[in-house]
């Protein structure tokens, strides 16, 4: 409990520091607000003068002069209000720009260790905060402190008027508090459900092929509709609650304004106030209470941003900023894994248990084992994506966490089991999304992966635009482009997870040549595989079984032992049958 609090506090502190960057702008808005609120007195003072001076003296000149002055003051007030809005829009944009990268990276890092919701919604939370800052609701903070002054002003006109205004104001504040209490849960629930429905729609859209080709459209719609209906029902409840408080506030404020006029008229009849006071106090009251009405009306936005702020602080605390690491020289391809234990994020049980092995420069290691034995888990731990729960992975003697993550990524070439490319050109994809791909390196990597010919045969060659799912590329072509991406910029360690699952003979040959090339250059290669053709170039073999290392050593020796064990097993089961 204590740790959680401390963690969140650290996140809050980081957010507060980002917010403080705009401190001078907040002061500017505060100053504008001082003048803008002072100018709010223009209307009431004009009414006082018109009723008590102009109507008394019947002077058209005075009325014209006053009206011109008032038009001028309203103009200034409008300008100040416009300026406040513009400044706050920029404050919001600056906060978002300051935190974008940090939140983006925190989301990525957090997703690698856990599947908690704050990691999913980080950027949306930041946007909710930015929207609130840029909206008129936040200006209420600068206007609310003036409400007591306006109420005092009314009291100065007449204590009875003051009592009515203060009583009405208190009632409105009470409604605001009740609004907060009653609408918090429904608004939160509505936000969560709408997020869930959005996610599901996105999931269905990306899996459109499966859904369409297996007649799952209607079932997928029904599933999505259920979530959508839930979200709609919750949105209606939230809007009912918020709407009723909003209507109550509006009605009450309008009634108070009329009540003010009524009480003012009574005081006029009693000779205790002038007509000007009657009108002016009614206008002043509406100015005093306007911020509260706005606040109640826009409360869901405030709540969403507040939740967003909490989520962000939680996310930033859970993924603290990485300390700068001392740059290490480019490592030699010496991989040493000792006692490696890995628990996938969100899981409680280890899926890789105390696995140890060594790979020297120029060697290729094949990792085999049945489905679910932990091959991909090992690959993810070796890239540094999943942190070890125990043991250590060393590259050229240094534990992986001694390398800055992006630098480590440059030393490693990774071909995941499920190839994912990104929207962009083939060259950008091979160059790992570098903004300005180095053409020579891109072509070199493509040639190593034997993908060059297939790429130049496309209409726009390396500049062919592809989508995240590959677009016009076939499964095998995607895998070859992904292999080129893995080989880009001369990595020292190449990790290939089921690399030939989509490859034809030519592709497999190209892959084996690439592995040979890596070995000849003194790099090391790890191949997670099912098919024997994939381990053809391997010198070593690691056999995994239910997360354990069941065998490790030179390939031929391990294979011989496996065959011997297999024959032993067959023999013993045969003997068992004779008995
Ligand atoms: N993200 C995850 N969260 C929780 N458990 C996971 C996750 N990914 C994999 N696992 C579990 O870890 C175990 C090992 O999975 P892994 O993907 O490493 O197997 P594999 O040997 O690569 O299998 P295959 O040959 O089918 O690809 C499996 O029991 C799997 O259910």
Automatic annotation (TrEMBL):
One GO CC term, this protein: type I protein secretion system complex
Q: Which residues form a coiled coil?
A: none
Primary residence: membrane
UniProt keywords, alphabetically: ATP-binding, Hydrolase, Membrane, Nucleotide-binding, Protease, Transmembrane, Transmembrane helix
* Biological processes, Gene Ontology terms: protein secretion by the type I secretion system; proteolysis
Output the Gene Ontology terms for molecular function: ABC-type oligopeptide transporter activity; ATP binding; ATP hydrolysis activity; peptidase activity
Q: Which Pfam families match?
A: ABC_membrane, ABC_tran
Q: Which residues form the ABC transmembrane type-1 domain?
A: 27-304
Domain called ABC transporter: residue spans: 335-571
Q: Where are the membrane-spanning stretches?
A: 25-48, 60-80, 132-154, 160-178, 263-285
Q: Does the keyword Translocase apply?
A: no
Membrane topology label: Multi-pass membrane protein
Highest taxon of the lineage? Bacteria
**Protein name, please?**
Protease/lipase ABC transporter permease/ATP-binding protein
């Amino acid at each position: 409990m204590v740790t959680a609090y401390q963690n969140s506090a650290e996140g809050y502190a980081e957010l507060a520091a980002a917010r403080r960057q705009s401190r001078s702008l907040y002061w500017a808005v505060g100053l504008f607000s001082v003048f803008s609120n002072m100018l709010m007195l223009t209307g009431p003072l004009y009414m006082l003068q018109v009723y008590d001076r102009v109507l008394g003296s019947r002077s058209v000149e005075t009325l014209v002069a006053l009206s011109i002055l008032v038009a001028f003051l309203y103009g200034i007030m409008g300008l100040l209000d416009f300026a406040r809005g513009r400044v706050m829009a920029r404050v919001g944009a600056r906060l978002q720009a300051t935190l974008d990268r940090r939140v983006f990276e925190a989301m990525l890092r957090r997703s690698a260790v856990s599947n908690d919701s704050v990691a999913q919604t980080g950027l949306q939370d930041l946007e909710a905060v930015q929207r609130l800052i840029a909206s008129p609701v936040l200006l209420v903070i600068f206007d609310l402190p003036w409400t007591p002054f306006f109420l005092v002003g009314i009291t100065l006109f007449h204590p009875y008027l003051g009592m009515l205004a203060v009583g009405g104001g208190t009632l409105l504040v009470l409604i605001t508090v009740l609004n907060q209490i009653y609408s918090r849960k429904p608004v939160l629930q509505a936000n969560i459900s709408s997020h869930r429905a959005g996610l599901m729609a996105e999931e269905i859209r990306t899996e459109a092929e499966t859904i369409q080709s297996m007649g799952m459209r209607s079932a997928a719609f029904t599933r999505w509709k259920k979530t959508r209906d839930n979200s709609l029902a919750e949105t209606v409840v939230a809007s009912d609650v918020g709407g009723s408080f909003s209507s109550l506030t509006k009605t009450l404020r309008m009634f108070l304004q009329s009540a003010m006029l009524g009480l003012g008229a009574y005081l006029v009849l009693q000779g205790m106030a002038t007509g000007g006071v009657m009108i002016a106090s009614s206008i002043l009251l509406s100015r005093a209470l306007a911020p509260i009405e706005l606040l109640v009306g826009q409360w869901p936005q405030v709540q969403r941003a507040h939740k967003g702020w909490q989520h962000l602080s939680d996310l930033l605390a859970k993924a603290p900023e990485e300390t700068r690491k001392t740059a290490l020289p480019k490592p030699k391809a010496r991989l040493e894994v000792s006692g490696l234990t890995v628990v996938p994020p969100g899981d409680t049980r280890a899926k890789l248990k105390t696995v140890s092995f060594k790979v020297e420069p120029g060697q290729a290691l094949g990792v085999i084992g049945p489905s679910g034995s932990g091959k991909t888990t090992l690959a993810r731990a070796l890239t540094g994506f999943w942190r070890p729960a125990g043991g250590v992975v060393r590259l050229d003697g240094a534990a992986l966490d001694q390398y800055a993550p992006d630098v480590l990524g440059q030393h490693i070439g990774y071909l995941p089991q499920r190839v994912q490319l990104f929207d962009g050109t083939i060259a950008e994809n091979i160059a790992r999304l570098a903004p300005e791909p180095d053409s020579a390196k891109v072509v070199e990597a493509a040639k190593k992966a034997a993908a060059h010919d297939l790429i130049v045969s496309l209409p726009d060659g390396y500049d062919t635009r592809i989508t995240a799912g590959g677009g016009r590329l076939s499964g095998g072509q995607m895998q070859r482009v992904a292999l080129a991406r893995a080989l880009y910029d001369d990595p020292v360690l190449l990790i290939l997870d089921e690399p030939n699952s989509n490859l034809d003979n030519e592709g497999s040959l190209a892959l084996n040549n690439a592995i040979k090339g890596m070995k000849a250059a003194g790099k090391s290669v790890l191949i997670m595989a099912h098919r024997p053709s994939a381990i053809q170039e391997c010198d070593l073999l690691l056999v995994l079984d239910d997360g354990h290392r069941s065998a490790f050593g030179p390939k031929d020796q391990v294979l011989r032992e496996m065959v011997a064990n297999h024959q032993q097993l067959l023999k013993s089961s045969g003997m068992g049958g004779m008995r």
